[in-house]
Structures are given as structure tokens and as C-alpha cells.
Amino acid sequence: MRLFLLCLFLLLPAGQLLAADCAGCHDDRTPGIVDQWRQSAHARAGIGCADCHGEDHERILDGQVRVSATVCGRCHDREWRQHAASRHGLGLHSGWGCTRNLPGRDRNECAFCHRGGTALPVSTVNCARFLEQSSAMGQVGCNRCHQVENACGSCHGNHLTDLSIVRDPQVCAKCHMGPDHPQWEMWQTSQHGQLWRLKGEKVAPSCQGCHMPDGTHDVSGGIAHTPGGKSLADDLAPARREAMLDVCSRCHAASFVRRELERGDAVLAESRDLVEEAAELIEDLASRGLLRPMPEDRPPHPLRGKSLVLDGQMLYEDTSGIESLFFRLKKFAFAKTWKGAFHQNPAWAHWYGNAELKLLLEQIRSEADRLEHFATGEKAVSESQVDRTTSELDRLRREHERGRLDDAAYRKARTELLESWLKKDAP
User: Fold this and answer.
1) Same domain, 108 and 19
2) Do 36 and 116 belong to one domain?
3) Which end of the chain, C or N, has fewer beta carbons within 10 A?
4) For residue 218, is it left (φ>0), alpha (ψ between -120 and 50) or beta?
5) Is 160 in contact with 39 (CB distance < 8 Å)?
């Protein structure tokens, strides 16, 4: 019997032989995984466990071996190259950060940016919000989605190869939902989503129909803006727009498609103006030392230190009240407004987006006015001429540090202020 089994194993392809070896234990220990593999195209093609996982069992058990997208790319080269060129191919790079100065850091994370034996990074990655989280929250709340960069299983599943899974828009919902990017909710409740649910792909598009046309793995093909709503470079945006026009024109008249996309552009521009107004109010308060607390009076930002941060690296913790309002305005309401417009969903563009954006702006205006009056009252009670001059010098210094005053303008304003103070102080 043993001789028969040995001969049988020797007749199997190498991958199948190792798979049979693995199954001897894993049929009992992880039967679901083995069952999924047996149903897969990999099993039918003779691709066994070691072909993807390698043969170092101890490292596999220790969690040091992961089947990365580059492993899949050895066989699926075209799909891997398309994926790597897309926004999905930057998933971890847009949601990570160097953890070397964090307490309780996981040293295994260093390998993401550094090759063994050198401190020089092979890629530059920074995300302030990731750096502010514990290692556990970073893994659960950040990397579970952002790992799509290097894990095909994020969409396909780890051991199944049934393409019906990744052709269903539900697979996108795991990450593309929630207050900062509710594309799933927008599509699901739009006319596209309703028709797709009732009649299927032949009548209305799914996420894949618009963003992965003809099976491409470049999910960025027709997207002309960054996730933060900025237009892409002039040499890239027009081609992206034409790609989306081509996709939409498979169902709609080209003139209609162009008008709809132009309306989306207009909503985005109008909304961006409101965000910029709110940012300018906060920057003005900061330049005059009126934020409570000021950046220098709170824990340092993990990337910018004791600076005011209102761009994509802004935090939702260790901040002032008015900045927390701005975070919700920019990260949530602004995103819902313009993304709702491009997903043809009136409720998300208007009530969940535009209305919330404008209500938050009113709150920011009111809070700025309150801080202004509070500071005026404080000055009337306690501020001497020296205190006022010092405050104004501090304001000029901040303006200079933030680039709103160049060197010459800063020196001129500082000199004029000091001369004015000396004249008033003279007997």
C-alpha cells in the first residue's frame, strides 16, 4: 500500500504533490481553505499550496509569508501590471507611515519600506492618521482596505477563483463605503444601482461596468480627479475624461454624457470654494494666535510637528474645536457632495453632501466669530501695548513661516511694527 501511494504521489505534478502533503493536516485543521482550493481553477490546473505559499512551513506558521500580488503576477502578468498602475496599486502607499518613533511598534512593518540590512527606504510613504493609531487599529481600521495594493485576495478571496465573486458590485462595498467615500451607497441607491438590481448588467452598469470595463484591472482609467477632489495633471486628466466618456457612451448619447460630467465638474468647483473659505478663516485665526488650543499648545502632528495642518494629512484628534468642524466639512461633506454628483445620486449630492457642507461652514463662521470676540474681550481687560506688539510679532512670524509673507515683506512689516511701538512708548 505504501509503495502504491508513493508511486501515485510521484506521478502527480509537483504542485499537486505538495498540496496533497498539506491536505493531510489541513483537511482537519482548516477544512474550509482546502475545500475552497479544491473547487478552484488552481486545483484543476495542478497549482498546489507551495506554488503560492512556498515551502518554508515554519515561516508560514509564524505569519511571515504572505501571498503578495507579485506572486499572482507570475502567472497573471497583464492583470498585475494593470492593477499596479491604478489607484489600487497605491493602496498601502496612501495609507501608511513610518512607525519607527511609535511606542510598541511592530518591527515587521519596517520591511514594507526597507530592505534588510539598510535604513534607506525603497519608497516614501506617509499618512498622519495611520501614524496616530495603535498598531491594532492601524491593521484593522486602515490596512484591511489599503492592503489591496499588494493582496489580490482583497477582492478575489484567498483560495477561490470563481469570477462571479469579483463581478458582483457587493465586493467593492467592503472599502468603498462610509462617511468619507460612500460610493457603494451612492451607486446602490442611484438609478444605475436600482436598475442593475432589477435587471442586471445588460440594462445598467455595476461598479465594474464603469470602472473596470472589458475586465481591465486598472480601476483608475476614467477618473480625472484625486480622491481629495483635485484635478489630475493636464497631461493626464483629458485622457481620463475621454475614457469615461467612452464608457458612458455605450449606454448614453455622448452629448448627454458630456453635460452630466460638466455638471459634476461645476458642483466640485463650487464645493471646493466653500472648503477654501473655511480653511482661510481657520488660517487667519491661527495667524493671530486665536485658535484654542494653538498648534504649539497641543501634541505635535506626527509629520508636521507644531504646525497647523488643513490638507490631506489633517487629524481628527489633538486638534481645536473649529478644526474638528473643518475635518468633517472637508473629509466627509465635501466628498459626499462632489462624488454624489458624479455618481448621479441627487440625495447624496444634495442632502447628505451640499446641505451638510453649508451647515458646517455656517458653524465654522460662527465659531470663528466667537473666538474673535472672545479674544477681543480678553485684550480689552488685560493686554498692554507690549502684549499687543508681541502678539502682532507672533502673527507676522507665523505668516512668514507658512509662506504667506516672503522674507522682504516680513522684514518690512516687522520693522514698521517695532518703529510704531517705539514711537508710542517714547516720552
Assistant:
1) no
2) no
3) C
4) beta
5) yes
Number of domains the chain contains:
3
**Within-domain flag for 53:** yes
Flag whether the pTM goes above 0.70. Answer: yes
DSSP string, 328-376: IIIIIIIHHHHHHHHTT-HHHHIIIIIIHHHHHHHHHHHHHHHHHHHHH
Residues 32 and 145 in one domain: no
Residue 366 corresponds to which cell in the numbers above?
A: 460662527
Q: Classify residue 188: in a domain, yes or no.
A: no
The residue-averaged pLDDT of 363-386 equals: 76
- Which amino acid does the sequence have at 109? E
186: confidence class by pLDDT, cuts 50, 70, 90:
very high
231 pairs with which residues across the strands?
225
Q: Specify whether the CB–CB gap between 405 and 396 falls below 8 A.
A: yes
Give the bridge partners for 121, in sequence order. Answer: 114
24 phi and psi, to 5 degrees? -55, -35
Q: Are residues 296 and 390 in the same domain?
A: yes
Q: Indicate the DSSP class of residue 307.
A: S
Neighbours of 206 (CB within 10 A): 21
The DSSP call for residue 139 is: I
Find out whether the peptide bond into 13 is cis, omega within 30 degrees of 0: no
Query: For residue 365, what is its C-alpha cell?
Result: 463662521
Q: Which residues contact 288 (CB under 8 A, 6 or more apart)?
A: 375, 391, 395
Q: Helices marked H in 160-223 — which ranges? A: 163-166, 183-188, 191-199, 207-211
Residue ending a domain, choose from 65, 85, 111? 65
- Tell me if 130 sits within 8 A of 95, measured CB to CB: yes
Cβ(89)–Cβ(108) below 8 Å: no
Helices 31-39, 14-29: axis angle to 10 degrees equals 140
Last-in-domain residue among 132, 157, 182: 157
119 & 48 share domain: no
- Is position 6 within any domain? no
Closest by CA to 206, choosing from 176, 172, 244, 169, is 169
pLDDT digit string, tens, across residues 228-240? 999 988 888 999 9
Separation between Cα atoms, residue 50 and residue 23, nearest integer Å: 12
**Residues present in the chain in total:** 427
Residue 409 is assigned to a structural domain of this protein? yes
* 417 plus 355 within the same structural domain: yes
Domain extent for 78: 67-157
